[in-house]
Specification:
It contains ten helices and nine strands. It is α/β, with parallel strands linked by helices and 283 residues long. It has two domains: 173 residues, HUPs (Rossmann fold, 3-Layer(aba) Sandwich); 92 residues, Pantoate--beta-alanine Ligase, Chain: A,domain 2 (2-Layer Sandwich), CATH 3.30.1300.10. The N and C termini lie far apart (44 Å).
């Protein structure tokens, strides 16, 4: 039977465990999560295990990144299954603070990121989001003090925002992005996929297929706006309500006019029924 990871629920216990790792001179990797772990999350843990001697996984559903209309109260929480999965992968420590530990009474500091956090993608539809993300992630980085922090590329804008934040604040760690893990039909793995009805689940892979077709069209010389317009039409015809389908510079996420301004990333966010899905690919 796999060894259950240690669980820290307060700062003192967390720092005591990490100090023990540091005394042994080993590297530490952090995988931040909100729980409800799927194979995409577990791929991050496996990558962290290859890059560091000790792996810390945080499980914290961060209220600061949910708007009042979003799904904080119903966000999936699967603690027992999560711990079993992490035990099977040999995770050393789970950092699982309560909201009261992360945001104690009187807490009044919030980061306001710019750069890739202000480019008209997720920030246009969720203006609260990256302030909440960078506030909690900066706290996680300070609390755990890892050498490496591992994130998935599915939340691509978030990866760019966190990378920029760590650089701007001179935090002594490396942010590593891991390729998106997909179901056999191409759907990007997400904790929110459980909200899809069976017909919606059958339709959902349209996003990835359409991004691939758009990338192929662009590489074959099709003008940017023509390729994007075709992608938007395909996605809408499948029954999605589109928030955005964009081609952006892969590092800055600034708008581009052609592939010559690359490297280029295609990004999409769209709603299918009550579920909002995002995806992205390189061109």
């Amino acid at each position: 039977m796999a060894r259950r990871p240690s669980v820290a629920r307060n700062i003192a216990a967390l720092r005591n465990s990490v100090a023990g790792y540091r005394k042994k001179g080993v590297t530490v990797a952090l995988v931040p999560t909100m729980g409800a772990l799927h194979d995409g999350h577990l791929s991050l843990v496996r990558a962290a295990r290859k890059k560091a001697k000790r792996v810390v996984v945080s499980i914290f559903v961060n209220p600061a990144q949910f708007a009042p209309t979003e799904d904080f109260s119903t966000y999936p929480r699967t603690w027992s299954a999560d711990i079993a999965a992490l035990a099977a992968l040999g995770v050393d420590l789970v950092w699982a603070p309560s909201a009261a530990v992360m945001y104690p009474e009187g807490f009044s500091t919030r980061l306001e990121p710019g750069g890739p956090a202000k480019v008209g993608l997720e920030d246009r539809f969720r203006p609260h989001f990256f302030g909440g993300v960078t506030t909690v992630v900066s706290k996680l980085f300070i609390q755990v003090a890892p050498d490496i922090a591992v994130f998935g590329q599915k939340d691509y804008q978030q990866l760019m925002v966190v990378t920029r934040m760590a650089r701007d604040l001179d935090l002594p760690l490396k942010v590593v992005g891991i390729p998106t893990v997909r179901e056999k039909d191409g759907l990007a793995m997400s904790s929110r996929n459980v909200y899809l009805s069976p017909p919606e689940r059958a339709t959902a892979p349209t996003l990835y297929r359409t991004l691939k077709e758009c990338a192929t069209n662009l590489r074959s010389g099709q003008p940017l706006e023509r390729a994007l317009s075709g992608a938007r039409a395909t996605i809408e015809q499948a029954g999605f309500a589109i928030d955005y389908v964009e081609a952006r510079h892969a590092q800055s996420l600034a708008p581009i006019a052609s592939l010559d301004e690359g490297p280029v990333r295609l990004l999409v966010a769209a709603r299918l029924g009550r579920t909002r899905l995002i995806d992205n690919i390189a061109v």
